[in-house]
Amino acid sequence: MKVLNPSVLLGVLLLSCLCPWRSTTAQSENTPAIASHTPLNAEEVVNRLVQKNLERAEALAAYRGTRVYRLEYRGFTGSRSAEMVVDVSYRSPRTKEFSIRSETGSRLLIERVLHKLLQTEKEALNEDNQAAIALNRNNYQFALQGYTSTPTAPCYILSVEPLTKNKLLYRGRIWVDAQDFAVVRIEAEPAKSPSFWTKENRIEQAYAKVGDFWLPILNRSSSTIRLGGHAELTIKYQDYQITTRVFADSAY
Hints:
By secondary structure, this protein is α+β, with helices and mostly antiparallel strands. Helices cover about 20% and strands about 45% of the residues. It has a single domain, classed as outer membrane lipoprotein receptor (LolB), chain A (Clam), CATH 2.50.20. It has helices spanning about 15, 40-60, 105-125, 125-135; strands at about 20, 60-75, 80-90, 95-105, 140-150, 155-160, 170-175, 185-190, 200-210, 215-225, 230-245. Strands 1, 2, 3, 4, 5, 6, 7, 8, 9, 10 and 11 form an 11-stranded antiparallel sheet that branches.
C-alpha cells in the first residue's frame, strides 16, 4: 500500500479552478457605493458578491499566465520534492489549456499528483461542475464575522459552510473587498476529504488586483497523511495577460 495516494492533494483544486474576479470602479445602479462607516449585513454582502461575480465572468474574455508548482512530501519512507512550471491559457466560458514548460524532482510526485491536478482542474470547468462549486447560496451558507481594514481597502469577513459534501467545495472564511465585492483571501478546508489517506487538509489562497481584475497570486495547501507524513503544495501565479470582452452599451 503506497503512502502517497495520487488523489491526496486534489483538495487544492477547489480554489485554483475558480475563475478570476474582475473589479469595477464605476458603480452600477443596483450596487451603490458603500459608505465606509456603514457596513452592510451578510445578506447584502452576499447579494453584491454574487452579482459582481456574474458580471465579471461575463466581462472576462481570456487570460494567459504562468504558474510555478512546488510540492514537498516528508514521511517515514523519506522525503520527496518536485517543481513544475506551467503556462496557462483560458478562454471564456470553459476552455483552459496547460503547457508544461519544465519539470524537476520526483517523477512520482509529478506524474501522480501535479499532472493529476491539471487534469482535474480542466474537468472541473464543465458546466455542471461550475454550477455545483459556484460561490452562492445554492452551495453555501454565509455568516458575517467582521469588518476590517487592510493595507489596500476595508474588507468583510464571512464564514462559508458548504451545503453538500462535495470535495470541490470548502468550509472556512473569505475576505471580500468592500468596494469591488471580490474575494481577496480564503482560508479553508475541503468540505469532503479528497482521499481516505488524508486526515487534515488546509488551504490558503490570496488574490491581488491586476489592472481591473482580482487574480490569484498564491495558493498554499497542506495535507497530513494518515499513515504518517506531511505534504505541502504552493502555487505561484504570475505574468498575467488579460483580454476583456467589449460591450457596446456597458459600464465595462
